[in-house]
Write a structure and sequence with these properties.
Blueprint (H helix, E strand, L loop, with lengths): L23 E4 L15 H17 L4 E4 L1 E4 L2 E2 L3 E4 L13 H5 L1 H4 L27
Antiparallel strand pairs: 1-3, 2-5, 3-4
Length: 133
């Protein structure tokens, strides 16, 4: 007869050498706008990531975009793909369908979104306010 064997399993994550740089949560997966305040380090990147969400939303036919941007400015980790496919949970627990379905209402267009060469539609919330530029 065959006896059972014992196996050891390890879960390893790559060590992120931040060289002393602060870990930043740029955009949360429950919001389509930067979490970083205007005067904080990383704000410009957060604004660019919000613009990238706008592009992804348009290019996927308003079905999906990447969110949960976090990490250090030279390395992002653990992004989340968000979609709203009629209740089909295809991207795990972090998939916040409401964030996608409310994107046009909640997204605040910024200087990148407004650049004429991209031809992006401005959504209901309009342009980034003067105080947040």
């Amino acid at each position: 007869s065959k006896t059972g064997s014992t196996r050891t399993v390890f879960l390893l994550k790559e060590f992120i050498n931040s060289d002393g740089e602060e870990f930043i949560k740029f955009i949360h997966n429950m919001d389509a706008n930067p979490l970083v305040d205007y005067d904080d380090y990383g704000y410009d990147l957060a604004v660019f990531f919000a613009f990238m969400q706008h592009v992804q939303y348009v290019k996927t036919g308003k079905l999906a975009f990447i969110s949960d941007y976090q990490g250090v400015t030279r390395l992002l980790t653990d992004p989340q793909i968000l979609t709203h496919l009629e209740g089909h949970d295809i991207f795990g627990d972090g998939n916040m369908e409401m964030t996608v379905s409310q994107f046009e209402k909640d997204h605040v267009c910024n200087k990148y979104c407004e650049w004429p060469a991209f031809g992006l539609e401005a959504y209901a919330s309009g342009a980034e306010s003067e105080t947040s530029k």
